[in-house]
Specification:
Order of helices and strands: EHHHEHHEHHEHHEEHHEEEHEEEHEEEH
Largest sheet: 8 strands, parallel, barrel
Structural class: alpha/beta
CATH superfamily: Glycosidases
Low-confidence stretches: none
Strand content: 15-25%
Shape: globular
Number of strands: 15
Strand order of the largest sheet: 1-2-3-4-5-7-10-13
Helix content: 25-40%
Length: 442
């Protein structure tokens, strides 16, 4: 078994969470309505009928949860800012009570000697902007620049580490192509402009932070899964490249000056009609790090019946690998392979900004013996170390997530936390995985 020292003294150890999934207090202190408030409060949208209106009550319980993170010997605390707490309508007048909350939260992190890492956008677009087109409309770009301006000016005296976006391929694909996530839109004509405007905002938001905070460390987080072909047949290899272009390369290559991966995914040629003058330059930014968010790997096969992609992925249950509670495969080597893949890009540093697993946990005598999650974290972390020892510049690991929370479409059934949450009484129990992390980092 490896030790903390194997990763080096400067390696960052942290935990990640997101505003909508934990804060609750969805109408308190001037907060506006986001697309996830609107989406999750509609019938038949969330698997267990729940919503994020209360969630973990982090808005009121943040100090106890930050103290809990500190007790696990973590040194970095990643959280996102609710856009509608700061700008209830997405733009316009700033809500000072929202700024006050995040000022208290940041000060509390520093009080407990936890380095705050701020994610600007973790999927909670203001509903007022969605009514004007949301990510399909160019108006979102200027609105996002203002949001980045307000946040960096307000918090930059204490926050040095910034993540502009969380998984743009996820919120555009699931939210604007297949309608599974908020705001529930469908179709290529929604998806392509959403992709381009999100890519623009990655760079434009980063530029605004850099303008206000020249010495800040600025990154963005990409969801990525190693994609293997189903065989060594050239058709299957080409299918895997198309899936890889869609899921892994779509938002990283434009910011590196490589453009959209049109060669492997010709449908992206249509994205040019959403370009304005100079966009080819505006989508570029020299990030200090790229956040890698990896949970599973994929096996792709050629399927001409699938529109645009002409490929599909083998269902996880047919891969003969262990599965998590939400049906995702457990394949630690995929972490190693995706880190190696991204290390081939001209990126200054990689940081694993999310990795974790959902399992069916049971509380027994005020304990949660989550052996499978513990094994998952240990095995994936081992692959991070393997890549690091082979020369990949990996600067940190953030587990997803501190505590069980509102897990988007899965509601409260999908538990990723290293701390158990009782959503009725809002009590917390550190799981065995959290206790292992505490001892590992001691």
């Amino acid at each position: 078994m490896y030790s903390k020292n194997d990763f080096g003294e400067k390696f960052r150890w942290g935990v990640s969470l997101a505003a909508y999934q934990v804060e609750g207090a969805y109408k308190d202190d001037g907060r506006g309505i986001s697309i996830w408030d609107h989406f999750s409060n509609r019938k038949n949208r969330i698997e267990d009928g729940s919503n994020g209106n209360v969630a973990c009550e982090f808005y009121y319980r943040y100090e106890q949860d930050i103290a809990l993170a500190k007790s696990l010997n973590l040194t970095n605390f990643r959280f996102s800012i609710s856009w509608t707490r700061i700008l209830p309508d997405g733009t316009g007048e700033v809500n000072m009570l929202g700024l006050d909350f995040y000022n208290r939260l940041i000060d509390c992190c520093l009080k407990y000697d936890l380095e705050p890492w701020v994610t600007l956008y973790h999927w909670d677009l203001p509903q007022a902007l969605e009514k004007q087109g949301g990510w399909t409309s160019r108006i979102v770009v200027n609105a996002f620049i203002k949001f980045a301006d307000v946040c960096s000016k307000s918090f930059g005296d204490r926050v040095k580490n910034w993540i502009v976006m969380n998984e743009p391929s996820t919120f555009t694909g699931l939210g604007y192509l297949i309608g599974y996530y908020a705001p529930g839109r469908f179709g290529i004509n929604n998806y392509l402009p959403a992709v381009h405007h999100a890519t623009l905002c990655q760079a434009e938001g980063a530029r605004m932070i850099r303008r206000n905070l020249p010495n800040a460390t600025i990154g963005t987080s990409i969801s990525c899964s190693y994609v293997a072909p189903s065989s060594d047949n050239p058709k299957q290899i080409a299918a895997a490249r198309r899936v890889d272009a869609l899921l892994n390369r779509l938002h990283i290559e434009p910011i590196l000056g490589m453009g959209y991966p049109v060669k492997d995914l010709p449908v992206l040629e249509q994205i040019e009609k959403y370009f304005h003058p100079y966009d080819e330059e505006l989508i570029k930014f020299d990030f200090d790090f790229i956040g890698i968010q990896n949970y599973f790997s994929l096996v792709a096969y050629n399927n001409p019946l699938i529109p645009y992609l002409q490929a599909f992925v083998v269902p996880f249950k047919k891969l003969n690998r262990p599965l998590t509670a939400n049906g995702w495969e457990v394949h630690p080597e995929g972490m190693y392979r995706i880190l190696k893949q991204f290390s081939a890009y001209p990126i200054k540093e990689l940081i694993v900004t999310e990795n974790g697993a959902a399992f069916h946990d049971r509380v027994e005598d005020n304990c949660v013996h989550d052996k499978r999650r513990l094994q998952y974290i240990q095995s994936y972390l081992g692959e991070v170390l393997r890549a690091k020892q082979e020369g990949v510049n990996i600067g940190g690991y953030f587990v997803w997530t501190l505590m069980d929370n509102f897990e988007w479409r899965a509601g409260f059934r999908s538990r990723f936390g290293i701390v158990h949450t009782d959503f009725v009484h809002q009590t917390r129990i550190i799981k065995d995985s959290g206790l292992w992390i505490r001892d590992f980092l001691k």
